[in-house]
Amino acid sequence: MRTMFGLPEHVVYATAGVWALLALATALVLFLRWRRPGHYDELVSRTASWWWMIGAFTLAIVLDTTVAIVFLAFISYLALKEYLSLIPTRRIDRGLLLFAYLAIPIQYYWAATDWYGMFIVFVPVWLFLFFPALMALRGDTKGFLAAVGTLSWGLMLTVFCLSHMAMLLVLGASHNPVAGGVGLLFFLVVLTQFNDVAQYTWGKLFGCHKVTPNVSPKKTWEGLIGGVLTTTALAAVLGPYLTPMDHTWSAAAGAVLGIAGFLGDITISAVKRDLGVKDTGGLIPGHGGILDRVDSLTYAAPAFFHFFRYFFAS
Amino acid sequence: MSTNPLIRLARFLFFAVVVRAAILVGLGLTVRNRARLPKDGPAVLAANHNSNLDALALMSLMPLKLLPKLRPVAAVDYFFTSKAKGWFVTNIIGIIPVERGSAKKGGNPLAACEEALDRGEILVLFPEGSRGDPETLGPLKRGIGHLACARPGVPVFPIYMHGLGKALPKGSSLLVPFNVTVNVGEPLYGAGTYKSFMKDFEARLAALAAEETTPRWE
Predict the structure, then answer these.
(1) Which of left, alpha, beta for A3 (phi over 0: left; psi -120 to 50: alpha)?
(2) Among A183, A280, A314, B34, which is least packed, fewest CB within 10 Å?
(3) Is B215 domain-assigned?
């Protein structure tokens, strides 16, 4: 594996490709705005946010594995904070929620030290048992079940599921001779985000049959199928360049990412519907909150990680 | 506030580094209608009060170049309990101290605020007076109405905040991260009597609060 700027060579070229695509998309959006001023403000701010997000991601993977893991842990922190701010909480649990934040550095530490056994049981077993018992010891039983349920689910989604990105980064170091852990992480994140955009675009252009009218009325079968097929095709091309998978396996991984991404998206949409909010927050102009952006990754990260681990790293 | 350049530098660093890191990164602000905020003084930012961090959060909404003009208004009896605390809130936070209940003794408790507005400064104040029960809007004190009517040319911006009462409520010293939502309203001017101003102000603050979907907290 040849390296450039401390990164696998293939990842450097793939990153350059993403930036070129972003520059192209920006030129297109600016052209649209120039033709019809005032009509594309949302699209402009959304594109501007992409520059920030892709910039932060590039910086995080260029610097060092530890920096990348801290960056991913920070995303978990933002997601958990946004989640806890959205849901109904009990005053008595305030101190306990501070403990919940502590789960993030611990969980990412297991990933960073490649301690898979602990990584995979810490949240679903130990924290799952610990927090309800702590709440019971505090003695307030009113709203107990709701508090336990929402906290456990939030920790699973924002800490456990998202931390699979860090574990993938570490796993890839020993199981991806083509482009290392960074290559796998890049494959996962870029294709999942690309899948979001592809499903949105296909839906915008050809969408008419709704998949989940009650949860996310804008999601259509045309968007879903078109998006998944586009992602599968791109994955088939990119996979052999960034991962040890051949074209066929990469295509299968692309389909897994596309479908998992869609399921993550509608799950967060259902949460928003239940709470009566449009966006999960206002962190990313044009996109909404951090959960609006990483919703598909909450499903795609564990799905792709276990797909890859089962077939290529066990 | 001190004119000592070293203390001014300390104040700048405190707000530019410590406060911004804690409020913008640690907690996170979602600001609605940010464009309504004043570009320069004199002005009054009047918000609901839930937490000791309220003033710091409001001050971090404004650009750092306006920091020398930003003055939170606070009660003497609460903040001047020790010499060190008094020095800190005067020189670093830059508060204008107000004596509670001094109007009954015949003085004008708002004289220092009026002078600050005449100098073109931006006041940060909390018409509820005290923080009260976190995340519930308490009754408003009349000071804001008197101040607005005394300086009818100065815009008063009603601002509704949510979240800091969960992050650091009254009676707790444990800071738990929660997102903070800030909704900035259109400015009001003290044209008529203070009573009519209070009515308008209260209505506008309630309307800002109603725009937010805030989760149950019990």
Answers:
(1) beta
(2) A314
(3) no
* C-alpha to C-alpha distances, B71 to A64, B24, B36, B110, B120, nearest whole angstrom: 43, 20, 19, 13, 11
In a domain, B217, yes or no: no
The answer to whether B216 contacts A88, with C-beta atoms less than 8 Å apart, is: yes
Token look-up 């605390």 returns B85
What is the distance of C-alpha A5 from the center of its chain?
A: 26
Q: With an 8 Å Cβ cutoff, is A4 touching chain B?
A: no
Could you tell me if A26 and A46 are in contact, meaning their C-beta atoms sit under 8 angstroms apart? no
- DSSP label at A213? T
Given a contact cutoff of 8 angstroms between Cβ atoms, the answer to whether B158 and B190 are in contact is no
How many angstroms away from the CA of B215 is the closest CA of chain A?
A: 5
Task: Using a CB–CB cutoff of 8 Å, tell me whether B100 touches chain A.
Answer: no
The SS3 of residue A161 is helix
Residues of A in contact with B174 (CB under 8 A): 94-95, 98
Give me the interface pTM, i.e. the ipTM: 0.87
Cβ B159 vs Cβ B49: under 8 Å: no
Q: Are A144 and A135 a contacting pair, CB within 8 Å?
A: yes
Chain segment A31-51, per-residue pLDDT in tens: 998 898 878 888 898 999 999
B43 DSSP β-pair partners: B122
- Would the CB atoms of B174 and A94 count as touching at under 8 Å? yes
Residue B47 belongs to some domain of the structure = yes
What is the count of structural domains for chain B? 1
Domain that residue A39 falls in: 3-312
Interface test with B, best of A94, A140, A144 (most B CBs within 10 A): A94
> Token digits for A67?
């920096």
Domain that holds residue B52: 5-210
Count how many domains chain A has.
Answer: 1
C-alpha dihedral (A274, A278, A280, A284), degrees to nearest 10: 170
Residue with tokens 């001047």: B80
* Low-confidence winner among A258-272, B75-89, B112-126 (lowest mean pLDDT): B75-89
B21 within a domain of the structure (yes/no)? yes
CB contact under 8 A, B28 and A81: yes
Task: Characterize A118-155 residue by residue with b for buried, 16 or more Cβ atoms within 10 angstroms of its Cβ, and e for exposed.
Answer: ebeebbeeebbeebbeebeeeeeeebeeebbebbbebb
Nearest by CB: B163 against A85, A90, A91? A85
If one compares A28 and B106, the residue with the highest pLDDT of the two is A28
